[in-house]
Amino acid sequence: MPEDSPDRTPPRSSAITPRWLDWAREIQALSQTGAHFSENDYQRERYLRLTEIAAEMMAEFSGQQYPGLIDLFSRQVGYATPKVDVRGAVFRSGSLLLVKERMDNGWTMPGGWADVGDVPSAAVEREVWEEAGFHVAARKLVGVYDANRTGPLEVFQAFKIVFLCELIDGEPRPSLETSEVAFFQPGEIPSPLSGERTKVRHIEDAFFALKNPECATVFD
Fold first, then answer.
1. Sign of the alpha-carbon torsion through 193, 195, 198, 201
2. Which residue among 74, 94, 120 closes a domain?
3. Range of the domain at 114
4. pTM to 2 decimal places
5. What sign for the dihedral angle of Cα 189, 92, 214, 113?
6. What is the pLDDT of residues 34-49, one digit of tens each?
7. Burial classification of residue 10, based on how many CB atoms lie within 10 Å of its CB (0-12 exposed, 13-18 middle, 19 or more buried)
8. DSSP of 118-172
9. Domain boundary, last residue among 55, 74, 93
10. Cα 154 to the chain's mean position, in Å?
11. Are residues 119 and 212 both part of a single domain?
12. What is the chain's alpha carbon radius of gyration, rounded to the nearest angstrom?
C-alpha cells in the first residue's frame, strides 16, 4: 500500500490492450461517428461495412459471437465516446469497503456504469447503496483513469472515476449483483479482484487519498 507522503507522484496508466482490440475499437468508433454525420445512403453503407469489419475482428480474436457484436454495434448512435464507470471508495475506521461480484467472485469497490442523465457523484452514491447497503456522500475525487477493459473483454473503452465517499449510515447488504460486503484494512485486501472493475492501483490511490486529504487528484 502507498507511503504516507503528500508528494507522491501519481503513476500513469499501465493498462495494455491487444493491438487488435485497439484497432477494432477505433474502427467501430469511426464507423459510428461517420454514420452519424453521413449525408447520403452511399456514405452510410460504407460506414456500415466498417462496423461489420470491427465486429468480424472482435469475433475472430475474442471468441464472442458475430451476430451479438454486430447487433450491439448497430445500436450505437451519435458521436462515439468512451463509457464512464464510477466507483466509491468508502472507509470505516480506516478499512475500505469492498463487495464481491456474483458474476466472477472477484472483489471490487462498489460501482458501475453511469447512466445517461446521471450526475457523477449521485451515480456513485446510488451504486454504493444498491450494491452494499450503505448511504454515502461523495466528498473528493480520488482519480480519473483510463479503463481499457480487457478481461473479461469489454468491446468499448471506458473512463473510470473513483470518488472518496463519506459513510453516512446503513448495514452491509448484498444485492443481485454482489454476494458479500465487507471492510478491509490495507494488508487484508482479498483476492482475486474483479477484473478491471477495481485494480490494486485504485485501492492504493484510495488509501492514499484518505490519509492525505490535500493530495492532488490522480489522472491518466
1. positive
2. 74
3. 83-219
4. 0.77
5. positive
6. 999 999 999 999 999 9
7. middle
8. --HHHHHHHHHHHHHSEEEEEEEEEEEEE---BTTB-SS-EEEEEEEEEEEEE--
9. 74
10. 10
11. yes
12. 19
To the nearest 10 degrees (0 to 180), the angle between helices 66-74 and 19-36 is 40
Residue-level pLDDT at 149: 56
Q: Tell whether 194 and 102 lie within a shared domain.
A: yes
- Residue 162 has which C-alpha cell? 473513483
Domain CATH code at residue 193: 3.90.79.10
Identify whether residues 152 and 88 lie together within a single domain. Answer: yes
The number of residues making up the chain comes to 220
pLDDT, mean over the chain:
90
Beta strands 83-92 and 111-113, pairing class? antiparallel
Cβ proximity of 28 and 155 under 8 Å? yes
Q: Which cell is 152 given?
A: 473479461
Tens of pLDDT, residue by residue over 152-208, are 546 788 899 999 999 999 999 999 999 999 999 999 999 999 988 999 999 999 999
> At 139, which amino acid appears?
R
Closest to 15 in 3D by CA, of 144, 146, 202: 146
| Residue 210 in this model has a pLDDT that exceeds 90 | yes
Domains contained in the chain, number: 2
Q: Which helix (H) or strand (E) holds 41?
A: helix 41-62
DSSP conformation letters of 174-212: --SSEEEEEEE-GGG--SSB-TTTS-HHHHHHHHHHHH-
